[in-house]
């Protein structure tokens, strides 16, 4: 049921260069309702939220909040708020170098670092984006890189949050069988 407090996404799309992150979302969220966006990593949830909050420009479409078109308004003018994900990756290092960093600190040679980092990236399904900077990744992708970085030295006790669904030999020995 529509109320005067609805949030409307009108044919909203977001593209980052050649990547379509959000494709023609057209939906009315009832005012006062509590909504969860569920979907696989990289499907566009954060981009959608950032466009609603005004932290991301909209490629196509518009955002209507309580009947007002806020598409061109700055975040502070929208009356929205946002809590960000943060996985403490090194912002100036690409994905591969983030994962290999601790090996470098241990004096491991470059070829071995590269090979080991690639193995870890394959483990978390991130081997296709080794040259991206953290700012060019989705939140879940950043978290997977952070997980690869945590596992690259084969730690005795790897710890992570509930988003991780991948098990390695290290995980199994530390936490029991999956
Ligand atoms: N600044 C950017 N430059 C290029 N591609 C980007 C950028 N930000 C996000 N993407 C890509 O857009 C897609 C959607 O990203 P988004 O952050 O919206 O996903 P998500 O559903 O929130 O993912 P997750 O659950 O992993 O946090 C991903 O494929 C991501 O790699």
Automatic annotation (TrEMBL):
Name of the protein in its database record: Putative spermidine/putrescine transport system ATP-binding protein
Alphabetized UniProt keyword annotations: ATP-binding, Nucleotide-binding, Transport
InterPro entries: ABC_SmlMolc_Importer, ABC_transporter-like_ATP-bd, ABC_transporter-like_CS, P-loop_NTPase
Single Gene Ontology MF annotation: ATP binding
ABC transporter domain residues: 7-178
Keyword match Secreted: no
Gene3D superfamilies: P-loop containing nucleotide triphosphate hydrolases
Keyword Flavoprotein included in the entry's annotation: no
């Amino acid at each position: 049921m529509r109320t005067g407090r609805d949030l409307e996404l009108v044919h909203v799309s977001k593209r980052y260069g050649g990547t379509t992150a959000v494709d023609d979302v057209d939906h009315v969220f009832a005012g006062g309702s509590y909504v969860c966006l569920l979907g696989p990593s990289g499907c566009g949830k954060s981009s959608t939220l950032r466009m609603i909050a005004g932290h991301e420009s909209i490629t196509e479409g518009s955002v209507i909040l309580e009947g007002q078109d806020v598409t061109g308004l700055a975040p502070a003018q929208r009356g929205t708020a946002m809590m960000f994900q943060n996985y403490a990756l090194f912002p100036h290092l690409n994905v591969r170098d983030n994962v290999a960093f601790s090996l470098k600190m241990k004096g491991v040679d470059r070829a071995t670092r590269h090979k080991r980092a690639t193995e870890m990236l394959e483990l978390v399904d991130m081997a296709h984006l080794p040259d991206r900077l953290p700012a060019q990744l989705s939140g879940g992708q950043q978290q997977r890189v952070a997980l690869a970085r945590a596992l690259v030295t084969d730690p005795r006790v790897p710890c992570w949050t509930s988003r991780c669904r991948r098990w390695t030999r290290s995980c199994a020995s530390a936490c029991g069988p999956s």
